Structures are given as C-alpha cells and as structure tokens.
C-alpha cells in the first residue's frame, strides 16, 4: 500500500492531508494495532488522531468525526480513495449491531427473487441463503473488500452490485453520493443496540485488554465513543439524507421490521424499483422471503453455526436474540433514563424518534 500514499492523501480532507505527510511515526508509543497495518504512513497518521480506550482493541481513533479502529480506518481511507460507485449500486448502511445480518439477507433475497424458484407450499429451492452467510453474499466494503490495503476487482460482481458499510454518511466515498446509487439504512433503538454490542464484545475482546465493565461501556456509548459513533450522528446523517433524497436513501427501523417485516420487504422492493407483481402478491412471495430470512431460520442453518464470514468473528456470534426491548433485562432504570436523555437531546428537532423509547 506504500505506493498508494499520494492517492490516499489526495482522498483526504485538506486538514488531514498535511497531517499524514508531516506526522512523526516515532512521536509516541506505538499502538500494537497500528503496528500491524500494511501501510506505515497510514499507521503514523492514525496515531496522530485523537484517541480513547477501545472496546475490542486498545484504542479507538477519531477519524473524520467518527470513532473507529485502526484496521478499519486504513480500509476506509483505501475505500474513499479507490471505490467508484455505479448508478445501479445498492449500499446497505448500518451502525454495528442494529440488524445488519438480517437486512443483508432480506435485500439479497428481494433483489434476486426472480433467480430462484419458489417451491409449492413455501420456501426456496437451493437458495444461496441456505448455504451461505449473508455477509458472504453482501460483502462489507471496509471489513472485506478494501481491508488490509487490497484493491478489489469489482468487475466480478453482477449488476446491480450490493455492498455494505458501517461508515457514516459524510465519510462515504464521494461517488456514492454523486452516482445516483441507492442507500438502504437501518437503525435500532440505541438501548438495544448497546446491549447487543455489549454481549458481542464480551465474546471477541481479548483477555489481555483487561476488564471491560458494562458501566464503563455504557458511559462510552452515551458519550458517543463506540465504533463508527457517535451513534446519534450516524443516524442523523442518513436520516437527513432520506428526507432530502427519498428516492436515493431509504431509512428503516429495526423495530418496524420486528413488528411486521412483510410491509418493510414490500417497501424495500418499491424503493429498488422492483415492486411485487400481482402474481407475486397472490403467491405470498414477500412472506416467503420473510420466512427464509427470519432469525429463527437463519440461526439454525449449519453455515451460520460455523466459520467466519467476517474476519475475526465467528458466524454463530452474529445470532444472539434479535429481540426488541431486551435492554430492560440488563440495564437499571437509571441507565435507561440516562440513555433516553441523551437520545432526546441529540435528536431534538430532527423528527427522528423511536416508539416505546
């Protein structure tokens, strides 16, 4: 990646271009995670950024106004520099632990429903989602395609191409915003997002990083110090775009999907420009997709019990409960009140709300 540094610098805001060129890589002790990066200049730049103690790595760094881990920042710089969106592209965007695995499955099945025969009585024959994790079918841009300094050949993807990202809207590659590509965003009640994140981190955090109490994690989450956070800025970035450009950005809520996913699937299909025909409606195709992609179906598939579709994460760890309101079983009423206060304050005047929150 060393020979890509001039391109990377060009892809950064002016305020960070000079930092990357001038920073002294020996100016401070080396974070072991930055030492693993494939590009020394990028590692040095990352060490120059504001930082806080991390959740599953020693530190999180503040890059372009959001918090992120070193490997992901390197990948995002690579992504911002090299990714060229097509008008026909579809980008799934989420903040971690808000239903990404489910949305990937739903969008993939909806988009490809004409390619796979529906058998009589319900269900799909030989559907890829029965044999592949949804993260393999809809790859992450920063976790997979542009990770570790690689520049992928995206010509191998059929059109329309489907990708996923956790990157906040302002930090998306410019071509995503100017090409006419469609973005589908999913968010979740922050209290449930926190609990899901907390349980997930407990499974992947290395013992060498020391104890990481729920109280400490909750405080960091409420301050916005969490991967790709602050969560409220992440939500608001896509929320505002969905209002300004409703034909290009679709904003979904996890709770609506849990309440009744079939209308959400129908809304998704309309947004993609491929609404269900009267014949499909009569055959209950949207309900078949809902069943195929349900938490219960996907969790019990062998492919989702073994392997790692995302580097460093066991597939089984992507399926915990998927419930709405589970936070009440883990957080005190005082913690719930504190989170509500943060959300009300940060989302004030935006029109974005959460039912039952």
Task: Describe this structure as you would to a colleague.
- This protein has helices at residues 5-10, 14-22, 32-35, 40-47, 70-82, 100-111, 134-137, 141-145, 174-178, 190-204, 214-222, 231-244, 254-259, 261-271, 278-283, 285-293, 295-299, 333-347; strands at 51-53, 59-63, 66-68, 90-94, 162-165, 182-187, 249-253.
- Helix 6 runs antiparallel to helix 16.
- The chain has a single domain (33-346), classed as 3-Layer(aba) Sandwich (Rossmann fold), CATH 3.40.50.300.
- Strands 5-4-6-7 form a 4-stranded parallel sheet, sandwiched between helices.
- Helix content is 44%, strand content 9%.
- It has 18 helices and 7 strands.
- Belongs to the sulfotransferase 1 family.
- Pfam families: Sulfotransfer_1.
- It is an enzyme of class 2 (transferase).
CATH fold-type name:
Rossmann fold
The order of strands across the largest sheet is 5-4-6-7
Strand content: 5-15%
Largest sheet: 4 strands, parallel
Distance between the termini: 46 Å
Sheet/helix structural class: alpha/beta
Rounded mean pLDDT is: 85
Counting DSSP E segments of at least 2 residues, the number of strands comes to: 7
CATH architecture: 3-Layer(aba) Sandwich
Q: Compute the CA-based radius of gyration.
A: 20 Å
